[in-house]
Amino acid sequence: MFDELAAQSVGEFVADFPVLSGSQPVYEALGVLQRAELMSFPVKLEKGYGVLQAHSMLKVKSPDTKIGLFAKRVPALTQDTSVGVAAKLMVEHRVQVLPIVEEGEIIGVLRADRVLSGVLKRGAKGLSITDIMTSNPITIEANDTLGKAVKLFTENKIDHLPVLSKGRVAGMVKSKDVLLLLLSPGEKLTQGGWGLEALSQKRMPVGGITVGAVASGVNEDYSEALKRVLESRSTYTLVVLGEELQGIVTLRDFLKPLAEHQSTVELPIQISGLSDDMLADGAIKQKLRRLAIYATKTIPSVFEIRARVKKVGPSGKAFEVNLQLYTPKKTVNLSDTGYDILKVFDKIERRLKQSIKQELNPPKKRFPKRMQ
């Protein structure tokens, strides 16, 4: 059912989307967020790429804060990345968008709603909405304050809070709506309203900004609920039995069946310095793919892999390959040189395996024997 779509390349789903730099201030990001349908957007960081999410921006104390401080590091895709791999990465990293990169520059994004439109066109028979819902979601009462909502959003890293009144669904409040109310990108910033005005607004009851919730019955199937979400340009649906809340399904949850068709994830390698002919070479592609699979399996925290190739030597016929693997804590750098680029990649792969083996099995410390 999902196999055909999972095998397609994300290049067919590339969408234009505002891209900000990590050095830009938060108040510039607010304007972009206000116009965007989704609650996150890509950010070009000093090293790598990120996604800025509405709930993380609720931690901001000043409009001049650089957005890179709050962006979540994510892997970048290439146009050749399969939709199945991309869906799995979105689910694992809990994001609605991922940047698509070419030669180190973001050329577009992959949006969860675009991919799900492809799912809807192909149909998804036999799946119930309850198969993918998150049961017992975090909720808030209509008479609770916006301050409490902010705390729930930031502590739980979520963007949707179902609002209840006397145990029944009263509506929905989203992190994006709270953010734009407290940190308005309009006149409030120029008038210094970031602090005191926002503080007074945090005492407001949540019911004041609650909107009607998109909802699906417990007996609805996957396609029926997804169609309602996409047609209403929503990012979620509540699952209800009468007026009682049973669960919630976000765009990320709708991606789960597609992601499950991808048993392994190989991160796309961002490669530069190779000619088009060499990039099209099947043997080189296979070497890169094998490197990516091994790195992803053995270093689960790796979120980006880059390879830079350049010709060196007096005649310019030798190849120097530099491989960088980025993890949240460190960057692994490996490089080698040779006249046969395939053999260079082989040597780098062996060095990577050796490096990981040493890290997993560090040499035991030797202590001098005690004198009798």
Automatic annotation (TrEMBL):
Xref: PROSITE patterns: CBS
SUPFAM superfamilies per record: CBS-domain pair (SSF54631)
Keywords tagged on the record: CBS domain
InterPro entries linked to this entry: CBS_dom (IPR000644), CBS_dom_sf (IPR046342), Diverse_CBS-Domain (IPR051257)
Pfam family for this entry, one: CBS
Domain of life: Archaea
Segments forming domain CBS: 70-125, 133-189
Full protein name: CBS domain-containing protein
